[in-house]
Amino acid sequence: METMKSFAAGETIFKQDELGNALFVIREGQVEIVKKTEAGEVFLVIQNPGEIVGLLTFFNSGNRLASARARTAVEGQLIERENGKDPLANLPGWIQMVLKEFSLRLGQSNDQLVKLQEERTSLLDKQQSRFSQSVQIADTICELYHLFVKKVDNGREIVNCEPLIEAVDKCLGYGLDETKSIFGVFQNLGMIKVELHPDTGKEMMATNNIPRFKWYAEFVRTAKSGKNKKLLQTEIPFRYRKIIFGLRDYIQKSGGDVQKLITIDYNTLIADFEKHTTIKPEPAAFDLAAKLGILEMKRSGSDVKLSLNASLVVRTLIAINVSRRLRTDPNVKDDVDAAG
Predict the structure, then answer these.
(1) pTM for the whole thing?
(2) For 238-313, CATH number?
């Protein structure tokens, strides 16, 4: 049986899981095909005038694998089975064969697309989870580290890493391997400096590393609230990161205090930067740092000044690198060792 049907935008034409006993030939408008999965609704494809909706389940008499929904106002021809009769039975056999083959391949393509979408969603969820977990781990380290403080021969206070990491995992329950992996990202990207204990040979870190965990957690929280959001969304090329990192060495070797906010002459910086750091300066790197708010650039005619706290600049870059790595590949080591 054939009837002309009209649907308003957003109206369902065919519903997922219902019996596929009808086809819909689009005359006007657009139809979107969507599939409900455990990860949510997955968009599959848009169908346009002249295309047929519902081919696969019409031929195999199964339940619909996805829903068809009017994307715009839609008009078309609804072709239904009547008393179990196939309205396409009078078509030549080879046409029926082509239509069946086409519908089968369409179903396989849709299944593959759904699988890829689900894998992508799962990966994004895992990346976001690791990113959030890193903040909780950093906070918990700050809460627990004092339980594991010891002094080495020179009187320096250190924290043994292994028992601290185990205690953090007992508190958070992420799994010891996951907690170690995220701690490894902190270490590999230079946020903290891990050493070997002179007596036991086990990994330890000086207590002056602890404020870096606190700073990282606060940085991410302010990013989520919007203050530092653009810093996490911006991809800073490695050669620019290396130059911006070099500001700390430049200020140290030119007699400045890396812990305080200072102002330096831009032209002098460009002239002497390579001499102090062995890195060739690129003005674009400093321009990007100023644009992102990592430092401040003040211009007055030909006179240009940079205002920055070098240690804060380095911590900011490290936090950007750590958060970026936790959302991509957590196992790759970076090529900048910034902790000191």
Answers:
(1) 0.54
(2) 1.10.10
